[in-house]
Amino acid sequence: MLEVCNLYKSYGTLEVLKGINFSAQKGETLTIMGPSGCGKSTTIRCINRLTEPDSGHIIYKGKDILRLHKPELLKIRQDIGFVFQGFNLINRLTVFDNIMLALMKQDLSKEEVKKRVRKSLDQVHLRDFADSYPQDLSGGQKQRVGIARSLALKSSLMLLDEPTAALDPILVREVLEVLESITSTQDKSIIIVTHEIDFAYKVSDRILLMDQGRIVERGDPEKVFTEPTSKIGKKYKELFEYK
Ligand SMILES: Nc1ncnc2c1ncn2[C@@H]1O[C@H](COP(=O)(O)OP(=O)(O)OP(=O)(O)O)[C@@H](O)[C@H]1O
């Protein structure tokens, strides 16, 4: 489904990604973890080129995303949902219209669009909020609209960049519960950047642990949290045991 090869990215003299390699299979939930500033968001943002890497390859369904011209890139982005830390909703549009907007570039009938929006709102338990505006929602609800928007696209790959970063612990739980049900019921591939260790342990097929621009541990959650070999991996093991 996705293969990321030799990804490098620098900001000026700061080398943020120093050769990132990984793949994601169909239906797999992959979690990227690691200390603040290690390059997690940069990695996930490179996949749909919200951030342009300096070099490497990102092969998605057989095409190298980094070699695509704008029209092709925009098309492929319709097949890759992205859920942001900061929700990215349009305040003057209702919840329903925010989701509908994401579907405008797809060649769908009006009825199909409405059906998809309603279904995605059901999936995140927000059916009753279709006519609300973003300012009337809690952070957790806003983030669930972001997730619904991504689900409505029916993308085969969903990227989530710290979807609970801006939320208090109660809202974090609310969003993680929705995500947990999505990872267990959908056959889409999901790549999620998160600091939530318990959640990562529960839902991930594989975890990538990053440190200073490199992947230092990889494998199923059991392996990563119980048999780490790197310094940072051992710290995460302690955190996991502490919890
Ligand atoms: N647009 C940018 N310009 C300059 N430096 C940047 C830019 N974006 C990220 N960086 C730097 O790149 C490094 C990696 O950032 P990134 O956001 O990928 O880390 P992260 O692991 O996701 O961190 P966090 O967990 O805090 O979100 C950081 O030192 C950050 O300051």
From TrEMBL:
Q: Does the keyword Cell membrane apply?
A: yes
What is the recorded name of this protein?
Answer: Amino acid ABC transporter ATP-binding protein, PAAT family (TC 3.A.1.3.-)
User: What is the organism of origin for this protein?
Assistant: Selenihalanaerobacter shriftii
User: Under the cellular component aspect of Gene Ontology, which terms does the record hold?
Assistant: plasma membrane
Tell me the InterPro entries matching this sequence. Answer: AAA+_ATPase, ABC_ATPase_HisP-typ, ABC_transporter-like_ATP-bd, ABC_transporter-like_CS, MetN_ABC_transporter-like, P-loop_NTPase
Q: Which GO MF terms are attached to this record?
A: ABC-type amino acid transporter activity; ATP binding; ATP hydrolysis activity
Compartments, as annotated in UniProt: Cell membrane
Record's bilayer topology term: Peripheral membrane protein
Entries under SUPFAM superfamilies matching the protein: P-loop containing nucleoside triphosphate hydrolases
Question: Which intervals hold domain ABC transporter?
Answer: 2-237
- State the UniProt keywords alphabetically: Amino-acid transport, ATP-binding, Cell membrane, Membrane, Nucleotide-binding, Transport
User: Which family does the record claim for this protein?
Assistant: Belongs to the ABC transporter superfamily.
